[in-house]
Amino acid sequence: MAKHMFACLDGHTCGNPVRLVTGGAPLLQGATMLERRAHFLRDYDWIRTGLMFEPRGHDMMSGAILYPPTRPDCDIAVLYIETSGCLPMCGHGTIGTVTMAIENGLVSPREAGRLSLDTPAGRVDVTYAGSGDFVEEVRLTNVPGFLHSEGLAVTLDGLGEIVVDVAYGGNFYAIVDRQKNFRDMADYSAGELVALSQRLRSALNAGHDFVHPLHPEIRGLSHILWTGAPRDASAHGRNAVFYGDKAIDRSPCGTGTSARMAQLAAKGRLSVGDDYVHESIIGSLFKGRIETRTTVAEYAAIIPSVAGWARQTGINTIFIDDRDPFAHGFVVP
C-alpha cells in the first residue's frame, strides 16, 4: 500500500481549468516527447486519471506536467494530461502552464519574454508579457495546422444529416458550420451539444481514419467544434468545443482556434497576417493570427498563433491513496 503525493498549481485559462503538476510525477523514458508520452500512457496513466477524474477532478479538468526538454532548442518540455488522455498539444493548457510556470519561477527562460516548449506535437514557441511579477498575456506560435478532410457527412438521430470538415491544429477537430440541419450553437444547451458530439465523434472515427501524415502516433478525431455567430463586437466567430467524454471547453480553445483558422485559410477566407478573434461559450476571447503558410506532407498548411490570458487560483497537494477504492478516479456515465 502507498500514498502518492502530487504538488500542483491550479488555475484557469479564460475560464477552462489547468492543473500544473509541479512535484510527484515520474521520470519518463524516451528520446522525444512523443516517446515519453507513450511511456506515461503505458505505465503511469493512473496518475492522469487520479488527478483529472472525480473525486479529485471533474469532466472539464485538464492539466500538464513539466519535464526537462528532449531537444536543445527548447527551454522546457510539457506533457498534457486531461480526461480523455494525453493530448499531443493543448492551447489553453499552454497559456495556463506558461503563466503559472513564469509567475512561480519554475522555468528560467534563455530570453526574457520568450519560451520554447518541447511538446508531443513538436516545438511550440511562446511570448509572454506582463507587469511586475504577473503574466497578463501569452501568445503561442503553434505547430502547423491544416485542413485534413472536407464535406464528411454523418446522419444523427434527431438532427439529420450533418456535414463537417476535419482540420488539425495540434489535435483533430470536426468543425460544424451553419448548414441545413444546424444553424448556430446558441440553439442548443451545453448538455445537448455534448450528447450530439459523442455520437458524431463516434460515427466519424468509425467511418474514417484521421492520422497525422508526419506523426502516425497522432491519430483519431478527439474534438468537435460547433460554430456560431459572435456576441462580442470584437470577435469573428464563436464556438463550443467538445472534448473528453462530457466536456465543453470554457475557453475559446487554442488548438481549436488553430484548426478553425487552418480550415478558413484553406477555403480562402483567411490570409497570412489576418487576425481571428474567437469567442468561447462563456464569452472569453482568444486572439488568433495566421503567421505564415507552410506544408505538412501533401497538405497546404498554416503556422497559427493564439493569444490569451490565465490566472492561478490556488496551490494544491493531492494524495492518491492505494487504500482508496477510487484511487484512480471514476467517471459517471
From TrEMBL:
<dbReference type="GO" id="GO:0050346">
    <property type="term" value="F:trans-L-3-hydroxyproline dehydratase activity"/>
</dbReference>
<comment type="similarity">
    <text>Belongs to the proline racemase family.</text>
</comment>
<keyword id="KW-0413">Isomerase</keyword>
<dbReference type="GO" id="GO:0047580">
    <property type="term" value="F:4-hydroxyproline epimerase activity"/>
</dbReference>
<protein>
    <submittedName>
        <fullName>4-hydroxyproline epimerase</fullName>
        <ecNumber>5.1.1.8</ecNumber>
    </submittedName>
</protein>
<dbReference type="InterPro" id="IPR008794">
    <property type="entry name" value="Pro_racemase_fam"/>
</dbReference>
<dbReference type="Pfam" id="PF05544">
    <property type="entry name" value="Pro_racemase"/>
</dbReference>
